[in-house]
Design a protein that fits this description.
The protein is mostly helical and about 325 residues long. The protein has three domains: about 15-90, no CATH class; about 100-185, no CATH class; about 195-305, no CATH class. Helix content is about 60%, strand content about 0%. The radius of gyration is 23 Å and the shape is elongated.
Length: about 325
């Protein structure tokens, strides 16, 4: 006997077998988190929304419900549904989620990321995390989708939130500096699993960029950190280091051109044939510089101290 359709409004048919599997996932979530009293109907409604969100990102034929459910991070998804339903117990679980890399709490991981985004600004670091939490369910502007409702359950929740947090604040920093900010829909769009081709080029870029960073002199690394991590103007850097602003301008241009040429040569040697290689390098460079320990606040502080300088207070 053919299986009957349960949700014909979605991009692919949800069969009776899929519906039974959804029921099993729901029961599994209730067993794991008995304090989260999510109605099954609400669970299914959130799951259908997530399926449509995920299917809309894909090209080609609609993904089958079975494949979607197979890759669902069931417990992360159940907690997300609890947060969407406004359950305090779900938010407590989310606050106390452990991140994989260091096993620290998610909230602490976000605070650490805020310290790297806004060094020397304790107030901004705290407000960055608080503001992000406040917009997980409530959109930051009319017509926008709340952050947590963009989660589709197809990847671990904690790393997803950390990535969205970083992208969101990088976008705000770009707006502040006059650079093109990320479109709202792109704040989490890098989060779908990368294809083998995308992973290959990201890894090739990281290798080339780290080699370029490793060959930099201390003065170049300091300049890069002051301009990027601390977002200081050329005038402020010149005043701090006691040199002419034109010198900083020339050195900055030299660093940028050197990075583009060094990385470009290596990616072309790896077989890059796509357009806009420069745009790809500049896009990828931001995240790498933010994470590289050679540009950490501590390292930059040591380089300044060696010159008898210190960052201005504030």
């Amino acid at each position: 006997m053919p299986e009957t359709a349960i949700a014909p409004s979605t991009s692919a048919v949800c069969t009776a077998r899929d519906s039974a599997r959804i029921a099993a996932l729901y029961r599994l979530g209730r067993i794991q988190y008995p304090s989260l009293t999510i109605p099954e109907a609400a669970y299914r409604a959130h799951l259908e929304r997530a399926y449509r969100t995920y299917a809309a990102k894909l090209e080609g034929p609609a993904i089958a419900w079975g494949a979607f459910l197979e890759s669902l991070y069931a417990f992360d998804w159940f907690v997300t549904c609890g947060c969407a339903e406004g359950l305090d117990a779900a938010w407590e679980i989310l606050f106390n989620t452990r991140t994989g890399r260091s096993d620290c709490l998610l909230l602490d991981a976000l605070r650490a990321r805020a310290c790297r985004l806004y060094p020397r600004d304790d107030e901004k670091q705290e407000s960055a995390v608080a503001e992000f939490w406040s917009h997980l369910i409530v959109p930051d502007a009319e017509g926008r989708t709340p952050t947590l409702l963009r989660y589709d359950g197809q990847r671990p929740l904690a790393p997803w939130l950390i990535r969205v947090f970083q992208n969101w604040h990088l976008s705000k920093l770009r707006k502040h500096s006059g650079a093109t900010a990320m479109p709202d829909d792109d704040l989490a769009m890098e989060l779908p699993s990368k294809t083998k081709t995308e992973t290959r080029w990201h890894e090739a870029f990281c290798t080339a960029a780290r080699e370029w960073l490793s060959n930099m002199a201390d003065g170049e690394r300091l300049l890069l950190g002051l301009r990027w991590r601390y977002r200081m103007s050329q005038r402020d850097v010149a005043a701090l280091l006691g040199v002419h602003e034109g010198t900083i301008s020339r050195q900055t241009d030299k660093l940028r051109d050197g990075a583009l040429e060094s990385i470009r040569v290596k990616l072309i040697a790896e077989g890059w044939t796509e357009d806009d290689l420069e745009g790809y390098i500049l896009t990828e460079m931001g995240g790498l510089m933010l994470d590289d320990p050679r540009l950490s606040a501590d390292q930059l502080g040591r380089l300044l101290h060696a010159k008898g300088k210190a960052l201005p207070a504030g």
